[in-house]
Design brief:
Blueprint (H helix, E strand, L loop, with lengths): L8 E6 L7 E2 L6 E2 L3 H7 L9 E6 L11 H13 L6 E5 L5 H11 E2 L5 E4 L12 H13 L12 E5 L2 E4 L4 E2 L8 E2 L7 E3 L3 E3 L14 E2 L7 E5 L6 H8 L6 E6 L9 H12 L3 E6 L12 H8 L3 E2 L5 H13 L4 H8 L11
């Protein structure tokens, strides 16, 4: 594995978030990202034997404000600079990082270079910050190539606290610990200690490099409906009756189960018969939906609800946005939701 200064360059993209906030030593206030300040607080950047350039959103965004427009902006930056750089590291707030990583995995078709999202729980200028290690290791991974000269990692990833994970498999699990993200249903792509140990069998590689093609049309006429004990008919019916709604991620119990209420099945059947795509995703962090396992799951299947298998809520939602954004028919969207496009589910 190798990287060399002459042939390697990384673009560091700051969208916003805690990692780019640097504490003013005089006022104590947190100030937005500046690459010059970053190099001051992380002098180790000077030791890399490859070029690092940076750019940032005109106005840095808190990740809770992230939306399809921001994803398009990020995709546009990567696309315009794709031939100039061997890899990309995106600094992003943690709250919606899994959504952004999932969206980018669908929007960047034919990606053959690393796009690594990372962030931190503490600002980069704080003594105990986790941001420094996350940043430095993300840059090193983005610059690393195999013996063939091609990047070791060629997909959208999240790097956090010693783990490199497939972006569309991640979920934020903790608001306070440094170990904030987890890939429950898919192996880590790399584990970092003294050495960076890559799980090459888990990394996604395309068979033929036909160039990067981007998809920036994301249809946000989608929703998440989470079941809970005591949920009322008017709640479900209100969500499924939203004008223009095209897709719903239905968060169910266990292996894809729901209450055996006649009104619930009627609501779901009516919605799917109108052309709404409803995807069954388990509320459990680990495991998968199996709608043939119990009668309650089978009833959902009979109502036209699709199995999400082991997809995350974040990936299911952004996949629906992506597919409807392509102008596909309802049948085409339903079929695509049942198949893995970029490794977001484990089974076809």
């Amino acid at each position: 594995m190798q990287s060399d200064k002459e042939n390697t360059s990384i673009l560091l993209v700051y969208t916003g978030g805690t990692i780019g906030m640097i504490e003013n030593p005089v006022t104590g206030a947190l100030e937005n990202f500046s690459f010059a300040q970053l190099k001051k607080h992380v002098p180790e950047l000077q030791k890399f034997n490859f070029n690092i350039d940076s750019c940032q959103f005109d106005k840095p965004m808190d990740s809770s404000d992230m939306d399809a427009k921001a994803w398009r902006k990020l995709v546009d930056i990567i696309y315009k600079n794709y031939d100039r750089y061997t890899g990309f590291v995106v600094l992003h707030g943690t709250d919606t990082m899994a959504f952004t990583a999932s969206a980018l995995s669908f929007m960047l078709q034919g990606l053959c270079k690393p796009v690594i999202l990372t962030g931190s729980q503490l600002p980069i200028g704080v003594i105990r910050t986790d941001g420094k290690e996350n940043l430095l290791t993300s840059l090193e991974i983005a610059a690393t190539r195999g013996t063939s000269g091609q990047p070791i990692v060629q997909e959208v990833c999240v790097y956090f606290e010693n783990k490199l994970m497939r972006g569309n498999r991640t979920t934020k699990l903790n608001a306070e610990d440094f170990n904030a993200f987890r890939s429950y249903n898919y192996p880590d792509l790399a584990n970092v200690g003294i050495h960076i140990r890559y799980n090459l069998n888990a990394i996604h590689y395309i068979h033929k490099d036909s160039g990067l093609k981007v998809h920036t049309d994301m249809n946000t006429d989608v929703a998440i409906l989470k079941l809970f004990p005591g949920i009322q008919e008017m709640v479900v019916r209100s969500v499924l009756s939203i004008k223009g709604l095209k897709g719903v991620v239905l968060e169910t119990y266990g292996s894809g189960n729901a209450p055996r209420k006649g009104w619930l099945l009627d609501c779901l059947s009516e919605a799917t018969s109108r052309g709404m795509v409803i995807v069954n995703v388990t509320q459990c962090k680990s495991g998968m939906v199996d709608m043939d396992r119990y009668e309650t799951g089978y009833q959902l299947k009979s109502a036209g609800v699709l199995s999400g298998y082991d997809i995350t809520t974040e990936a299911a939602l952004t996949k629906l946005m992506f597919l409807f954004g392509q102008g596909l028919s309802v049948d085409e969207v339903r079929n695509a939701m049942m198949h893995s496009l970029v490794g977001e589910i484990s089974m076809d």
